């Protein structure tokens, strides 16, 4: 079932899940309009998106909050934990390692790696930075399924290849470069400089 | 001219600009194929995207690297500096304030604000955190054009309203919520939990 859900729908599922947490506590059902309002889409889109999950809504009632939360968590694969490795302990990798927010979503940072021997052994988020050459060993031993790449641009492609060769299936890439990966490997890119430049494009275009 | 460029093209312009920096130094011209290879799109798309900027390519020659860089920088509004305020000095706001990468792209972080009096006066990125009630005064006095929201979800909408009322036209939102803003205000959202949940969706769907 999951394989046939459109990518745009997948990208909204986390927003719906979060919207349920925004409902007043004690509210046991919600309408597609409730979710649409909080998620910032229209209610027809909500109904269509959720119909991919087996149409958990009930006509005249809407959605049972607890049921829908469970359906969304199942679809998003959030009923199990995921081990994450952060590769690169520069400004951004250190920030991510110190972030602390990952655990709340069910992700466990099991290692922070860096190629610089000076950084190995320094503490990031309560964890000692480990040497890059241990990447393959750590991915295998700690059952890492998600790799976060926070290296300089030049190193990112090689790290992506080492991560996927070691068994990592999903990559969150903060390096400002497009990664080439094998089919079946999922890459999401978070690129602050691109986001900021899109903002300045609009500032410029509007004459601000 | 800029107003009519499709959003998808705008989102690729920063990638092309970066691609020029990836070319071997000393290379004075490049083809659309060169850019396509580095940017991870096809060459017809490159030519189409760049034609929106006044078609700076020359048949049989390609693009002059220096000229194209200048055209892209102009289009993206990168020929001037931008003052940025970071609102929220929690884990993420502190990480962003310490990041140091913004300056390299022409953005200057001129203030970090927090509502918590305990945080006011603490140092983030070499700058003392300032009180949230000074937001309007700081935006005006330091000519802030970009606001980065790194507050808890509950506070984000009110901060967006205060920023835009004070004159900020562009917002980069790290809070996990959809902001409602007036027409003409540009919001880009960076949402780590959504990106991670999209990855786990695919891990789950592929049976990993």
Strand order of the largest sheet of chain A: 7-4-3-8-9-10
Number of separate structural domains of chain A: 2
Q: Strand portion of chain A, in percent?
A: 15-25%
Record field, number of beta strands of chain A:
10
CATH architecture of the largest domain in chain A: 3-Layer(aba) Sandwich
Give the arrangement of secondary structure elements:
The structure is a homodimer of 208-residue chains.
Chain A: H1 7-22, E1 29-30, H2 32-39, H3 43-51, E2 63-64, H4 65-75, E3 82-87, H5 91-99, E4 107-114, E5 123-124, E6 127-128, E7 130-131, H6 135-141, E8 144-149, H7 153-165, E9 170-173, E10 186-189, H8 192-205
Parallel strand pairs in A: 3-4, 3-8, 4-7, 8-9, 9-10
Antiparallel strand pairs in A: 1-2, 5-6
Quick take:
Chain A has eight helices and ten strands. With 208 residues, chain A is an alpha/beta fold. Chain A has a six-stranded parallel β-sheet, sandwiched between helices. A two-stranded antiparallel ribbon of chain A has the order 1-2. A two-stranded antiparallel ribbon of chain A has the order 5-6.
Task: Provide structural commentary.
- The structure is a homodimer of 208-residue chains.
- Chain A is of the alpha/beta class.
- Chain A has helices spanning 7-22, 32-39, 43-51, 65-75, 91-99, 135-141, 153-165, 192-205; strands spanning 29-30, 63-64, 82-87, 107-114, 123-124, 127-128, 130-131, 144-149, 170-173, 186-189.
- In chain A, the strands form 3 sheets. Chain A has a 6-stranded parallel β-sheet with strand order 7-4-3-8-9-10, sandwiched between helices.
- In chain A, strand 8, helix 7 (153-165) and strand 9 form a beta-alpha-beta unit.
- The interface between A and B is large, with 64 and 64 residues.
